[in-house]
Design brief:
By secondary structure, the protein is of the alpha/beta class. It is built from eight helices and four strands, in the order H-H-H-E-H-H-E-E-H-H-H-E.
Length: 179
Amino acid sequence: MSNIFQRLARLVRHRWAEQHLRKALPPATLKELELLIAKSELGHTGQVRICVEAGLPWSYIWRDATARQRALSQFAKLHVWDTEHNNGALIYLLLADHAIEIVADRALDRTMSAEQWQTLISDMQSAFQGGHFSVGLVSALERVNRQLQAHFPRRSAANTQRNLPDAPVVQRHLPGRSR
């Protein structure tokens, strides 16, 4: 358990990260990701979401929540779990903590080993460290989509209804600033 000073330092770091969000993921990159998700979901029955936060909300910082806890919360809040074949995936980025989490619903999770998921995350981290957020996210999306197409192919073009929005969710927690 951290003390009050550690929590305040974490809060400052998380609020400070807000100013870097637009640089890391400009509108053109977000649109590219949205189109890639929409196109890929025509080939499989899964649902893929991306959620990016510069920092955690104050309540999460106060209770020392981890990026994984926030990712699991967003997985539920964004209804990624609510797929017919239990094959949704959330790619979650928490910029302030340099954290990447992938939450896969149970059917999709069984198609890859823990080491394969960790390799995907490590490859994203390498791209991000070089400042290549778009490259890292596109590569991760392509790999998740290949997995979904291999194990959950769409059998008919007639049923291409996608339940969830394709646009990445970008969350900001500074008052008066939204995106």
